[in-house]
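Aim 2, interim progress: modelling of the heme C-bound target.
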Amino acid sequence: MTCAAPAAARDLDVAIGKATFDRLWVQAPASTKSADGLGPLYAARSCASCHAGSGGRTTFRLGRDDPAGHPGLVIRFGDASGTPDPTYGAQLQPAGLSGAAGEGRAAVRFDPAAHGMPPRPRWSVEDLGYGALSAETHASPRVAPSLAGIGLLARVSEAEILKREDPDDRNGDGVSGRVARLASGEIGRFGWKASEPTLHAQAAAAFALDLGLSSDLRPDPAGDCTDAQTACRFAPQGSQDGEPEVAPALMAGLVAFLERRPAPPAPATTRGAKTFAAVGCAACHAPSLALDGGGEARAFTDLLLHDMGEDLDDGAGEGAATSREWRTAPLWGLSRALAQGSGLMHDARAGDVAEAVRWHGGEASGARSRFDALPKGERDALVAYVSGL
Ligand code: HEC
Ligand code: HEC
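Predicted structure of the complex, ligand included:
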C-alpha cells in the first residue's frame, strides 16, 4: 500500500498531535497514566510552554529578559567535539521531581563593548545542583524557534541540500557551507546546529531533554539523567512493561501535527529583495528550496552549516557542527518574531535585523561588509524586506 491514509484518519492524527503538543505532563506515578512520566529532571512541562500558541517562537530577548526560567530558552552542554557533560548530560534541566534536585539556572554576563560591536554575551550556569561542570563543558544557549512551515523543511530533498554545499569554496565567493552529516549517516536539518535529521527524531529529543519522557527513538525513561545523578536514576517512572512513556500513537500524531504547521506567507518581490540577493545574503539564506514530490519552501535557508566566526563561537560543538558553525537560520516568519518582541539569533542577542547582521562573521563577513557599504536608502530597503518576511 503506498496510497495516503484517508483524510479523516489524518485529521484525527493531527488532532491527537495537537493535544500531545499542548499536554501538561505530570509526575509519575499518577492516576492519569497516559500523561505521566515527566522528568525526573525537566526544563518544561509541555511542548507548548516553549513553543507557545501551537508552535511559536519564544519571546525571549537577551538584555531585556532574565534568562533564568524564561520559557523557551534552553542551555545545551557540550565540549568542543559535542560530548555532553559527564554529570549534567546534554542539557540543563532547571527543575527536578521525586527528590532529584534541579540542575541550576542560566546566567549571562556581558564583555565590555569592543571594536564597535555591542557587548558580547558570556553564558554560564549558577546554583549548580550536582557540583561543578567539567572544565571542558561549555554552556550553549538556544531559543525555541517558530515551527511554522517546519513540515516543508522536512520535505526538502537531500539532492537540494547537497547541491548547495561547497566545503572547499570552489566558486571562491567566501561562502562554503557544509552538509550536517550525522554519525548515523543521515543528514541533519533541524535545530540551530542541524543536529536532528527528522521531525520524529527532533520530537524524541525534545521529549528526552526538555520533558524527561521516553519514546520509541529515546527509550530511557530517565531522559538526560546521567549515572552520576542517582536520585533521578532511581525515581519512579511513567513507563510500564518496557513501553515508552510517550505511546507510539501519540508520537505519530505529534509528527503529523508538526508536518501540517502552516508556512508563513510568501513575500512580495521588492527593491529590498534584489539588494538581499546582490549583497550575498541569499548565498546562505536561499529564498526557495525544492521539495520531494514537487513544490517549494520559501524559507530563506540552505539548511547547511556555516562558520559564523569568533563572536558566535560558544565553545560547544553538537552533532556534525563545530562550535563556530550554525545552520543558516530560516528567515520566514521574521515579521512575527519582531512583532512579538523576540530577540534574533540563536541566543536572542539581536534586537532587530541590522543588529543581527552585525554579529555575522566568518563566511558571512563579505555579505556584512557589503551590507555596511550600501547607501542608506538601499540598506533600509533590505532591512524592511527581511523584517517583513
Ligand atoms: C524547554 C523548551 C522547549 C520545549 C519544552 C520544547 N522545545 Fe522544541 N525547541 C526548543 C529549542 C531551544 C529548540 C532549538 C534547539 C536546538 O537548536 O537544538 C527547539 C527546536 C525544535 C524543533 C526544530 C525547529 C527547527 O527550526 O529546526 C522542533 C520541530 C521542535 N522543537 C518541536 C518540539 C516538540 C514536538 C516538543 C515537545 C515534544 C518541543 N519542541 C518541546 C525548545 C523547546
Ligand atoms: C555565510 C552564510 C550567511 C550569510 C551570507 C548571511 N547569513 Fe544571516 N544567518 C546565517 C546563520 C548561520 C544564522 C544563524 C546564526 C546564529 O543564530 O548564531 C543567520 C541568522 C540571521 C538572522 C537571524 C534570524 C533569526 O531567526 O534569529 C538574520 C535576520 C539574518 N541572518 C539576516 C541576514 C542578512 C540580512 C544577510 C545579508 C546581509 C545575511 N543574513 C547573510 C548565515 C548567513
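The pocket of heme C (ligand 2) is lined by residues 175, 279-281, 283-285, 306, 308, 312, 326, 328-329, 331, 344-346, 353, 356-357, 360, 363-364, 367, 371, 386 (CB under 6 Å). The domain at 150-184+187-192+261-387 is CATH 1.10.760 (Cytochrome Bc1 Complex; Chain D, domain 2).
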